[in-house]
Design goal:
Length: 150
């Protein structure tokens, strides 16, 4: 049996174009979201919560041994620049790799976890959103293996 030849629906020609526009619009929407650096509050906020977390860690009995003999202001600036860079900010981190910077410190998992908790608390105090805080910590998590030695 031979079916009669039918003409395509007039909208069939524009369907592929509509599909492309739809997918492009969805992809573009994700790119409209501000960079993590901005979601964290910008460079000033990153500097503030970093400086406070490092100052606390330098005084806390659970973590202070790793800060002995360290120029705290230089370390705070270096860590803030690193976090800003990780968050796609305009900063330039010129420090060592995590492995080189921490290799001789014998930082334990417990010490690392305390510092991460302090960083979380200072981000909370700076009113950083949960989503931005979690994204920064997600990006930093792989560095744990280069920092913790035991």
């Amino acid at each position: 049996m031979v079916l009669p030849r039918t003409r395509p629906h007039p909208c069939a020609a524009i369907l592929p174009i509509l599909m492309v526009l739809l997918f492009t619009a969805c992809a573009h929407r994700a790119n409209d979201q501000p960079a993590l650096h901005q979601q964290l509050g910008g460079t000033t906020t990153i500097d503030t919560f970093t400086h406070k977390a490092v100052a606390r860690a330098a005084q806390d009995p659970r973590t202070r041994r790793t800060f002995e003999g360290v120029r705290l202001s230089h370390l705070q600036q270096s860590i803030a620049a690193h976090l800003c860079t990780v968050a796609d900010g305009p900063c330039i981190y010129e420090g060592e790799t995590m492995r080189n910077a921490h290799g001789d410190l014998a930082i334990t998992g417990a010490e690392f976890d305390v510092l991460v908790q302090m960083l979380r608390e200072e981000m909370d105090a700076a009113n950083v959103s949960t989503a931005a805080k979690n994204e920064l910590l997600r990006r930093l998590a792989p560095m744990r293996r280069d920092i913790v030695v035991r």
